[in-house]
Amino acid sequence: MKQNQDFKDRKEMKNSVLSKYERAKIKVASIRGFYYHAIVFIIINLMLFILRHKFTFILINKNALGNPEFLEWIDWNVFGTTIVWGVILAIHGIRVLGEFSLHVRIWEERQIKKYMNSNSN
User: Where does the record place the 2TM domain (predicted)?
Assistant: First the structure.
């Protein structure tokens, strides 16, 4: 009987270690995903700002295709894209790197255990 209990204890320990490893692996992948998101954000927005000035210069020479408000439209789109995407990136960063993420994960684990225990009865 004791040998059987030792086997179960070792198996549970192995499962808890694996789950810790898997959680750590998921956390690292999430952080890596955030960094990729931040790099893409920087590259795309730099390109938008550079091309905006180049595009504005071309349109000024061509009289803005007959519509002077078109240049304002370009500016609003470039700035709007940066602002909206920046907010989304900030939320992504808070979720991945912030303390809020830790509290949510702890709550999720408690809920999973609670439902697993209620379903086993």
Answer: 22-117
Question: Closest Cα partner for 109 from 29, 35, 26, 30?
Answer: 26
As given in the structure block, the two tokens for residue 103 are 């509290």
Nearest CA to 93 among 29, 38, 22?
38
CA 90 vs. chain centroid, Å, equals 9
Query: How many C-beta neighbours within 10 Å does residue 77 have?
Result: 12
Residues 6+ apart with CB under 8 A from 109: none
Per-residue pLDDT tens digits for 47-70: 888 887 776 666 565 555 566 677
DSSP the chain: -HHHHHHHHHHHHHHHHHHHHHHHHHHHHHHHHHHHHHHHHHHHHHHHHHHHHHHHHHHHHTGGGG-THHHHHHHHHHHHHHHHHHHHHHHHHHHHHSHHHHHHHHHHHHHHHHHHHHHH-
